[in-house]
Amino acid sequence: MKRYSAFAIAKEARRHHKGWERAWRSAVAKPEYDVVIVGAGGHGLATAYYLAKNFGVTNVAVIEKGWLGGGNTGRNTTIIRSNYLQDESTAIYEKARGLYETLSQELNYNIMFSPRGVMMLAQTEHELRGFKRTAHANAIQGVKTELLTPQQVKKKVPIMEINGPRYPVLGALWQARGGTARHDAVAWGYARAASDMGVDIIQQTEVTGIDQSRGAVSGVQTSRGMIKCKKLAIVVAGHSGLLAEMAGFQLPIESVSLQAMVTEPVKPCLDVVVMANTVHGYMSQSDKGELVIGGGADGYNNYTQRGSFHHIEETVRALIETFPIISRLKMLRQWGGIVDMTGDRSPIIGKTPLEGCFINCGWGTGGFKSIPGSGWAMAETVANGSPGTLAEPFSLDRFAEGRFIDESVAAGVAH
Ligand SMILES: Cc1cc2nc3c(=O)[nH]c(=O)nc-3n(C[C@H](O)[C@H](O)[C@H](O)COP(=O)(O)OP(=O)(O)OC[C@H]3O[C@@H](n4cnc5c(N)ncnc54)[C@H](O)[C@@H]3O)c2cc1C
User: Fold this and answer.
1) Could you read off the pLDDT of 24-57 as tens digits, one per residue?
2) In degrees, to the nearest 5, what angle opens at C-alpha 175 toward C-alphas 50 and 115?
3) Mutation to probe ligand 1, out of 75, 76, 277, 394 (largest number of atoms < 8 A from CB)
4) Which of 173, 181, 235, 400 qualifies as a FRET site for 219, CA 20 to 30 Å off?
5) CA 97/CA 391 separation, integer angstroms
6) CATH 1.25.40.530 holds for 27-78+183-252+344-401
7) What global pTM score does this model have?
8) Which of 64, 388, 373, 97 is nearest to 233 (CA)?
């Protein structure tokens, strides 16, 4: 793989950019692999990358029914933070956030990580108390967050109306090293680096069945034929329930559509990420100038990639209360992704009842931020056949044993 650099760009410019290679190989599936990963979203691709990099496991195929990064990874609002409440959560989200800091250099691919700061508004006394608790928990966990006063909020975000009308801003939880990254680039960067180490990425190929022999996985049926494998990793977010059914077990997952939208581009006016959980809306400004706005999840299970119309109205109405300045902007696009929600709003990483079959799902509305940490932990789980310290608390067993990792406050609207 040719390295990307300022020198390479200058060299290519001189020959009219005709010498660039494809970023990743377009592979044809081999009959058998050591590991098959289903799903070329960020989590599947990061798993492949860390399997190759950390464990030298390169006889790996990533099978994708559409195009890589075309699921939730390419549809999210790109918020990265690690200010969760429970120790287990903070450990994996902070691992991911830490990896994001140097991911562009590591992958030799500009993922546009922008640690511009994430602000979670407290607009009720209850919320303020909750955020004080989280700030204390984060201090003990070694994650740097702080509580801001309304005046500090206004100073950081002058376009915000902090005095109401329904819910005045009472404070905010602030993580200065939180921020955003370009979602497609995260998938593309991992794909390019994994492909370079020998991983086959096979797009436009749907997994339609899972083969077993004597209680262990032996391969997958796909829309282009059968592929044998020694280990199988299911990393398909909103489609996890369907794949689990093929493998013969059930998951405590509900699939719903979550939506987002962007406005027309405007001059820079917002240089942090703001989340308003009480009124239900959050916003940041992209490098192109569009305001990226996150809406709510549908209140019923579905596999549409659109989201209900009433959420658009509710989200925009909520944000206009806090940011009256945006009221006359035109909305450019709206879309949805199918998110995989667990009851405790924490992910599932680990073994399944089928020997040799592992699963990584349940990131729900907030799994973009965790891609590097999740890939790291999943690779460790698949390579060793059992989870390491990061993944261990998130096993599927916890639902049978009642060991919930309740992040319903940290992960509600707050993506
Ligand atoms: C609107 C929206 C906003 C969000 N905002 C944020 C945010 O700001 N911050 C944050 O941290 N998270 C956010 N998220 C959540 C985040 O996007 C997801 O948690 C994360 O992208 C999940 O990544 P993944 O790799 O697990 O899944 P995906 O990216 O969905 O990848 C799964 C892949 O599996 C493929 N697949 C499914 N079935 C099969 C099959 N049978 N055979 C082969 N391939 C198959 C799919 O085509 C898909 O490409 C948001 C999500 C949405 C929808």
Assistant:
1) 998 999 999 999 999 999 999 999 999 999 999 9
2) 55
3) 76
4) 400
5) 16
6) no
7) 0.97
8) 64
